[in-house]
Design goal:
With 99 residues, the chain is α+β, with helices and mostly antiparallel strands. It has a domain of 68 residues: Nuclear Transport Factor 2, Chain: A (Roll). The chain has 3 helices and 4 strands; from the N terminus they run ααββββα. A 4-stranded antiparallel beta sheet has the order 1-2-3-4.
Amino acid sequence: MTKFGKAIALSALALTLTGSFAIAEDHHDNHHYVRHDEWKKGAQIRHEDWNRGEKIDYRHYHLNAPPRGYEWRQVDGNYVLAAAATGVIASVVIASEAH
């Protein structure tokens, strides 16, 4: 292999490896249960928690339909029903209890 070929191969390998690390760092495991005593009806969920939550289909998880302006998100192994605009919590269900 020529020096040029080796340089291209090393560059491709470097790009592949750094891309993998970036993906791993961006991944959040929202399915592992974490207890949040501060998440109760009427409280406000932090933007950081809400934003890393995954919007879910309530029908798939046998949850009640959200009222207008609310949505269900799975965060830290919890299903959180909150107002999308304000983050005010209407309900919290531990994910393992909803199945």
